[in-house]
Amino acid sequence: MTAKSPFSLEFSDPAIEVERAVSELRYGRPVLFGNDTRQLAVLALDAVSPRVFDQFAETVGDSHELLITRQRATRLSLKTNGDVAVPLAGMSFDEASRLSYALEAKMPARVRPAEALLSSTAELARTALLLPAMVAADVTDLQDRFSACCRLHADRLTRLSPARENFQKVVETRVPLKDYGNAQFVVFRGGLAQKDQVAIIVGKPDMTKPVPIRIHSSCITGDLCGSLKCDCGDQLRNGLELLEQAGGGVLLYLDQEGRGTGIGAKMRAYGYQHRGLDTIDADAELGFAEDHRRYEMAVAMLRLLGIAEVVVYTNNPTKIAALKAGGIGVHARTPVLGRVTAENENYLRTKTLRAGHMLDIETLVAAE
Ligand SMILES: Nc1nc2c(ncn2[C@@H]2O[C@H](COP(=O)(O)OP(=O)(O)OP(=O)(O)O)[C@@H](O)[C@H]2O)c(=O)[nH]1
Ligand SMILES: [Zn+2]
């Protein structure tokens, strides 16, 4: 008789199972992903080595397919309302990579609509911060060939809300800032496959009134290095200044590089922007929708800070909607502006025209 592991209960949690599968995919290993009737063996093309790609093809007898999201398929001029699957038999790793993210790739003639099970593997890739280009094969009758691989039931993906909302405060420490005086840095841990998140409290916000807050998504290029391609660095500093001028407030600095796609995808998208695509089309070229950010962590952090009513500093209507959906009272919205530069003007226009950001772009351009 095998002794029951004392950890079995604790570790059979949907979020832990998803995090394990995501970690395997990031290391370029296959995962068995299925429901009660079908099993797919899946690999993330963005992380797999050419050698494992070839080994996988051989193991599944060349029955593998490539998932191409609706956004990518549309960029490749296929008229479709959903994701599609392309047979990979005879296709090399390089050819599959070109098909999944190169500019001006040609969509093969043989394409079929992707079923829900296959489509949902894109969510695994996005959680792993990998391109949603998944290699998959139906191995329902070949499962023993993948017995060494991590398994994940697809229904786990529908049971992740508790984990996404579950955060703990880890530490709170004073940090003296050159321009904004003493700030409190509060670190939070939790969520699904996420790094720690930080709240920066400047001044002394009056917690009995709606608290001035900014939700800021990380932008290594803009925040850290002053990139001229976006307005993030300006918005970070102007945001902190506005919060301080308001008598104190909280900036939530969220680990959401590249609108939730990760720095790798964002830099790939920059390459396409240098070739003339706007920020949304460049992301679509990689298979992404226009914005993959989620805001459960922002709501959880505010709650842990004892904040239920806010004045939010943003131009992004999605952030306001997410706060309201999470039960935070939004009393007012204040814009946060950055400088318009030759390099970021198109980016700001695209945010306004295609992503609904509340920016009066013509006035901003005229003011420069
Ligand atoms: N994918 C992608 N992400 C970008 C690009 N430029 C900036 N980003 C990311 O876009 C996000 C900008 O976030 P925020 O500063 O919170 O700004 P916002 O959504 O415009 O909203 P507000 O500033 O609050 O009005 C960050 O995640 C950046 O890393 C780009 O060209 N492509
Ligand atoms: Zn930026």
Automatic annotation (TrEMBL):
Note on cofactor: Binds 1 zinc ion per subunit.
Signal peptide: none
InterPro entries tied to this protein: GTP_cyclohydro_II, RibA, RibA-like_sf
Residue positions binding GTP: 214-218, 235, 257-259, 279, 314, 319
Residue stretches making up the GTP cyclohydrolase II domain: 169-335
Sites where the protein binds Zn(2+): 219, 230, 232
Keywords of the record: GTP-binding, Hydrolase, Metal-binding, Nucleotide-binding, Riboflavin biosynthesis, Zinc
Top EC class for this record: hydrolase
Pathway(s) per entry: Cofactor biosynthesis; riboflavin biosynthesis; 5-amino-6-(D-ribitylamino)uracil from GTP: step 1/4
A single MF term (Gene Ontology): zinc ion binding
Any one cellular-component term (Gene Ontology): cytosol
Catalyzed reactions: GTP + 4 H2O = 2,5-diamino-6-hydroxy-4-(5-phosphoribosylamino)-pyrimidine + formate + 2 phosphate + 3 H(+)
Swiss-Prot/TrEMBL GO biological process terms: riboflavin biosynthetic process
E.C. numbers: 3.5.4.25
Active site, UniProt feature: 291 (proton acceptor), 293 (nucleophile)
Cofactor entry: Zn(2+)
Family: Belongs to the GTP cyclohydrolase II family.
Job of this protein: Catalyzes the conversion of GTP to 2,5-diamino-6-ribosylamino-4(3H)-pyrimidinone 5'-phosphate (DARP), formate and pyrophosphate.
Protein name: GTP cyclohydrolase-2
Organism of this sequence: Rhizobium straminoryzae
Gene symbol of the encoding locus: ribA
